[in-house]
Every structure is written in structure tokens, then in C-alpha cells.
Amino acid sequence: MTKLDKASRIAALRELSDSFFQKSSACTKVSDVASFFELAQKASEKADMLEDESRIESCWVYLQFIDHFQYENEYENYLEFCIRNGLFPVSNEDYKRALEFVAARGDCPS
To answer: Considering its fold, how many domains does the chain have in total?
Structure first.
């Protein structure tokens, strides 16, 4: 799945989730409310999962990029890389953890 496919799928799942939440609030039967609410939660959870996978992927792609091209490993550079390539970035804290993990293996560029 390409990054564009993932982004499109995430957007569609978020839209579907919103739609199900709206339908659940318009229902009068408790069972219908529960059904639509459950569907909304599942769509939202799937979107979150795909977004998390994309974030982790962006971090590892960037770390391979800087290793290959001896590029700086500053978080700001990583954010720019994500923006230029349409990727979801991880948080600064998670990025630092990834750098520490790679450094512990001896693979981290300076």
C-alpha cells in the first residue's frame, strides 16, 4: 500500500467514523445507537492503527535515508522530510527513542 493509498484510506475511515457517529446520535432505538456507535469506534480505531503504522514507517524510512546519505538526524529535518514526502511524523520523543535504539545497535549516523 502506497503512502497515498494509506492517507486516502485513513481519510475515508475518519469520514466513515464521523458518519456513523452522526447516525448513532440520530437514532431513537438504543440498539441502533449502540450498533452505529460500535461501527464508528471500529472505523476510528482502524484509522488510528493505519496512521500509527504510517508514523512508524516514516521514522524508519528517514533513519535509513540519513544513514545512506549521511544527512543530519535532527528532529526538525525529519519533520521537513515528512512534509516534503506526505508522511505522518512521529513525536519528538518517539523519534529520540528510535535514534537511541539505532545508536544502541551501532547503526546511527552522527
So the answer is: 1
